[in-house]
Amino acid sequence: MPIPNLNPKLIGEIAELEFHSRCARLGLRSTRGIGESYPYDAIVDNRHSMLRVQIKGTVDLGCNGLFQVHCGHSVYGKGIVPYEEGEIDLFAFYLLHINTWYFAPLSATDRRLSVTLYAPDRRHEGKYAQYFEAWHLLEMRKPCPICRQTHPDSPSSQPLLAAGDSSNETFSSVPDLSHQPAASPIPPNGISPHLTRHAALRTELGLPPLTAADFSAIPDDHP
User: How many CA within 13 A on the CB side of residue 110?
Assistant: First the structure.
């Protein structure tokens, strides 16, 4: 049955519905935010990490038989711009007419505003061949936001990187605090349990311990 002419808004809605339906069949928990103010369309909970996914659908087939998918977004006063690090984790590109998916980390698109994708019969061609139907990327663990490492019991210690990208800067640009010397703060006598927990949390995060002056500056009812 031929697909009727669709406007871009409806194409995007169909792509999102197909995405969430497939996630459900794969046992992945997916949801979407309220409204359209977020840079991502879906959040996927794979029981290890929460991945931010931007879903892009297309029916645009070029004269060379390749699909062109737009991967920028509109920003007021700036026009169409690429997504930035920290806004999304993955692109999910949906070729609607042939019911085909490509998944690619943000870094794989090199800040392009559009990408060219191949149909299944030519899926081994092109820059994004390795991302053809790469649903397994939704099951990867994101690095720890504090130490930028995957959880030690992770079945895979490889973060989501573009091909050939050896950078340790993956999903987060939070400074590496894993090698900071940990100290056990000794709070002054008579402080509340809330402040004790506050001091313990700083130690767990590898932050410098609180001093007596710090304790006096924190409200006693601080959570």
Answer: 7
104-143: string of b/e by CB count within 10 Å (b at 16+)?
Answer: bbbbbbeeeeebebbbeeebeebbbeebbebeebbbbbbb
Give the residue carrying structure tokens 């030519």: 122
Query: What confidence tens digit (pLDDT) does each residue in 169-215 have?
Result: 444 444 454 554 544 444 445 555 555 666 676 676 666 666 665 55
Residue 66 within any structural domain of the chain:
yes
Adjacent-strand bridge partners of 70: 114
Structure tokens at 53: 């996914």
| Structure tokens given for 88 | 């999304």
Q: Is residue 126 within 8 Å of residue 117, measured between CB atoms?
A: yes
Full residue range of the structural domain in which residue 38 is found: 8-139
Structure confidence by residue, pLDDT tens digits, 68-112 = 888 888 888 888 888 888 899 999 999 988 899 999 999 899 888
Kind of pairing between the strands at 72-75 and 79-82: antiparallel
Give this prediction's pTM: 0.62
- State the Cα–Cα distance between residues 169 and 91, nearest whole angstrom: 18
Total tally of structural domains belonging to the chain? 1
Cα–Cα nearest to 120, from 93, 101, 92, 105: 101
